[in-house]
What we know:
- The structure holds two protein chains of two kinds.
- Chain A folds into two domains: about 5-170, no CATH class; about 185-230.
- In chain A, about 75% of the residues lie in helices and about 0% in strands.
- Chain A is built from twelve helices and no strands.
- Chain A has helices spanning about 5-15, 20-35, 40-50, 55-65, 70-80, 80-95, 100-105, 110-125, 130-160, 170-180, 185-200, 210-230.
- In chain A, helix 4 (about 55-65) runs antiparallel to helix 5.
- Chain A is globular.
- Chain B is built from five helices and no strands.
- Chain B is extended and about 60 Å long.
- The chains are: A mainly alpha, B mainly alpha.
- At the A-B interface, helix 2, helix 3, helix 4, helix 5 and helix 6 of A face helix 1, helix 2, helix 3, helix 4 and helix 5 of B.
Amino acid sequence: xxxxxxxxxxxxxxxxxxxxxxxxxxxxxxxxxxxxxxxxxxxxxxxxxxxxxxxxxxxxxxxxxxxxxxxxxxxxxxxxxxxxxxxxxxxxxxxxxxxxxxxxxxxxxxxxxxxxxxxxxxxxxxxxxxxxxxxxxxxxxxxxxxxxxxxxxxxxxxxxxxxxxxxxxxxxxxxxxxxxxxxxxxxxxxxxxxxxxxxxxxxxxxxxxxxxxxxxxxxxxxxxxxxxxxxx
Amino acid sequence: xxxxxxxxxxxxxxxxxxxxxxxxxxxxxxxxxxxxxxxxxxxxxxxxxxxxxxxxxxxxxxxxxxxxxxxxxxxxxxxxxxxxxxxxxxxxxxxxxxxxxxxxxxxx
Lengths: 232, 108
């Protein structure tokens, strides 16, 4: 991507298309949160602090099932473990920035900023740290505030939505829509399939612990298959 | 109804914990390299945990008291097929929602 545009503007251009996915997802979170009994302030604070759609839906789902708080947090954070991987992937590119800047970088680590930044950094190896940071925060500019804004929109319209719409099922459908396109390799599919089978077999475990345990088993299966493919 | 104390505990713990996960490498590890096995496992978290979370919700939805519900099964199937074929998140959500309401309508 050779371009005369500044890295910040390139970042904005890379981040903008994600609004198409993020806006309805944010609205949906706001709606589901109101259905679960949260008010708009609670929904907004959650979106601002967590900035993690899937984990927020997970937490909400388990809270409505009256699962103990510790398990709710543990399950939602397990969903978010991938953020640690993104953080690791960004470290070689942005790790030499000052601590305050790295704090800001960390706050903005989400699927979309990670995905477009890492590919831009690989395409532009000559970029200085400053240019890389400009691109990264450029990508974050349309993404982060809109997640919060659209959560608010959802919370405002949420109260107007009747229960016959069966919005309880919006969460599974959205997760399917997000996860299925991630199944790029056999290892991904094996991890997912293992997660499903284990979770169905482990529903007897108390406090929805089955979700965390099955997730861990699925991760291990995915990682092991990847390792064997690399060896062969 | 969710009680407010658990809700705020979850909001704060999730916010703090998520930040820590985002900060752990870029903030604390700096330029040191990471063990390959760890990165390998982290790559599969989302694809393992999210299906594990939704599988029981699809088969035994809490909204029907855990009874298998044909419209919800149809919705999950439609969302999966469209996401698989098109990789479109929005298309998949619309297909799932459409199948769900079609199912409700067919079942009266």
